[in-house]
Amino acid sequence: MPPPVPHIETRGGWREAIPVVGSVDLPPDPRALESLGRNHSLETALADLVDNSIDAGATYVLIRLVRQDGYLRTLYVVDNGKGMTPETVDAAMTVGGHREYGDSDLGRFGLGLKAASFSQADDFTVLSRAAGRPAVGRRWRLRSGRSGFQCDIVSEDFATGELRRDWNVPMGDSGTVIRWDHLTCFPATNDSERVETFVARMTTDLFNHLGLVFHRFLSDGRIQIALDVTDVEHPLPGARFTVTPKNPFAYSRPGLSGYPKELRASLAGRELRLVCHVWPPRSTSPEFRLPGGAASRQGLYFYRRDRLLQAGGGWGGLQGVEDRLQLARVEVDIDDDIAGLFRMNPEKSKVVVGPEFGALVDYAEAEDRTTFAAYLKAAEERFKESRQRKRQRKKMLPLGDGFSDAIRDAVAAEIPTLPGRPPIHLRWRAMDGDEFFDIDRHQQTLWLNERYRRAQGDTPLLKALLYLLMEDAFQGEHLGPRDRDNIDLWQAILTAAVTDETLPGGTA
Ligand SMILES: Nc1ncnc2c1ncn2[C@@H]1O[C@H](COP(=O)(O)OP(=O)(O)OP(=O)(O)O)[C@@H](O)[C@H]1O
Ligand SMILES: [Mg+2]
């Protein structure tokens, strides 16, 4: 027998008004700072600082790593924006400190600087100068041992000195330096190999992330972002690297004609605009194969005020991530949170969509009446058809030494390979005669005559053409009469071409 259902008094037991008898002041414990920004990685944290630089009107942001005795010690973020004044710096250092935000401001919560900094460093210092005003400095320490929220005031001399250092940034008379010390992600070793590996990996991850998040700003020159590494013992900074834009929609031709299509919906005063893209299949461009892989980068790309908040990775509950949809990417420009529709996280690295989003998408239509479902179907068909076409192509031998990664990637993407067969190598060697090439089936190598190497410039284009032309001659048990005749024919014509010194246009 099931247990008896208890009787719950719902009406009589519930009172709307809660009686209070006074209040106590409960300032947050400073340890609360430590839990800020737990969702940050180094890349997302630095993106948050770049947001602030952009809001301050900066045109240049330098990220500098400082080494001492081989250890990584400090990270600086320097910008040439309008800076802070002695009156505004305290609000800037306040957790949740508010200011008036303009229509194009990336800031919104009054948290970014603090959350980003504490997620990466135990100490962070802000040194800043507004035009015609004295330099100011403040420092927050996570492990100061103090009981309250007390922020250090940095001496004006020190702030002025830090701002005047040889940053090699077009500074003008204002700017800001953010300094992070005791970074949790820095390696705790001065072993040069490990430190260099860390710096290389960090730079790649950072450039991928910043290149993506700020691609609209970088490509129209609103901001430049650079990174260098300096050594306290050798004052000259090392090579400086500049972040290049990574536009996730930068294909040279769309995968389907008629795309991208703009789908619009409006329902109960809410507007939605979806720009639906179809990538060409198997693209080898870095913008297609973003970190994480092209297939997992399908989905919705949310931008707020030109800054990318989320770079694909899902369909916001409309649809699961599936291999067959890997060519589909949708650009959605949103502004501030709209209840029921969108909400961004304070790290500005994710957008959560609400239940009304799906309803609006169902309503969305392009001018030619294409719906969202029809778009997804078209992108899926395009992918399937291209996979089918690849499967139907004649299998070829894989590429070995002598070909660039770009050719190798393109061949792997386009041509099914003969399983279990050795690859074809392409190499140069000295030959007695003036013939251009030699097909060496024994060593599975296409030899090219060294004497033409300089004239031919050793180009990827030449190598790709030779592979496409001659690959067949490496297949099969032995060369048939037809193969032999082909080789003689190629030899005659290519050798004539390679020894021809006539300039284009006809004059020798
Ligand atoms: N590089 C900078 N140059 C000038 N002012 C800055 C800079 N960085 C921060 N500030 C000031 O500090 C304030 C606080 O920055 P913080 O990133 O914490 O919050 P926010 O940008 O206002 O909002 P959000 O939490 O959305 O980033 C900013 O509003 C700005 O006034
Ligand atoms: Mg901010």
Give short descriptive properties of this protein.
8-stranded mixed beta sheet; 508 residues; 12 helices; Heat Shock Protein 90; 5-stranded mixed beta sheet; HATPase_C_sf; ATP-binding protein; alpha+beta; binds magnesium ion
Quick structural summary:
InterPro entries: HATPase_C_sf. It holds the Pfam family HATPase_c_3. The protein has helices at residues 42-55, 89-93, 112-120, 156-163, 192-213, 215-219, 355-363, 372-392, 405-414, 453-456, 460-470, 481-499; strands spanning 60-68, 71-79, 121-129, 136-141, 152-153, 175-183, 224-231, 241-242, 261-267, 270-278, 299-304, 307-311, 328-334, 342-344, 351-353, 425-429, 437-440, 445-449.
Widest sheet: strand order? 5-4-3-6-2-1-7-8
Ions, cofactors and other ligands present here are: adenosine-5'-triphosphate, magnesium ion
* Helix-strand topology string: HEEHHEEEHEHHEEEEEEEEEHHHEEEHHH
Distance between the termini: 105 Å
What is the top-level CATH class of the largest domain?
Alpha Beta
The pLDDT mean sits at 90
Task: Provide the β-strand percentage band.
Answer: 15-25%
Total DSSP helices: 12
Number of domains: 3
Number of strands: 18
Classification by helices and strands: alpha+beta
CATH architecture of the largest domain: 2-Layer Sandwich
CATH topology of the largest domain: Heat Shock Protein 90
Whole-angstrom Rg: 30 Å
Low-confidence stretches: none
* Biggest sheet character: 8 strands, mixed
Helix content: 25-40%
Structure overview:
The radius of gyration is 30 Å and the shape is globular. The model has no long low-confidence stretch (mean pLDDT 90). The protein is built from 12 helices and 18 strands. By secondary structure, the chain is an alpha+beta fold. Helix content is 27%, strand content 21%. It starts with 41 loop residues before the first helix and ends in a 9-residue tail after the last helix. The chain has helices at 42-55, 89-93, 112-120, 156-163, 192-213, 215-219, 355-363, 372-392, 405-414, 453-456, 460-470, 481-499, and strands spanning 60-68, 71-79, 121-129, 136-141, 152-153, 175-183, 224-231, 241-242, 261-267, 270-278, 299-304, 307-311, 328-334, 342-344, 351-353, 425-429, 437-440, 445-449. The strands form 4 sheets. Strands 5-4-3-6-2-1-7-8 form an 8-stranded mixed β-sheet, with helices on both faces. The chain has a 5-stranded mixed β-sheet with strand order 9-10-13-11-12. It has a 3-stranded mixed β-sheet with strand order 16-18-17. The longest helix is centred in the middle third of the chain and has 22 residues, at 192-213. The chain has 3 domains: 33-242, Heat Shock Protein 90 (2-Layer Sandwich), CATH 3.30.565; 261-389, no CATH class; 405-499, Zincin-like. The structure holds adenosine-5'-triphosphate and magnesium ion. Residues 48, 51-52, 107, 112-113 line the site of magnesium ion.
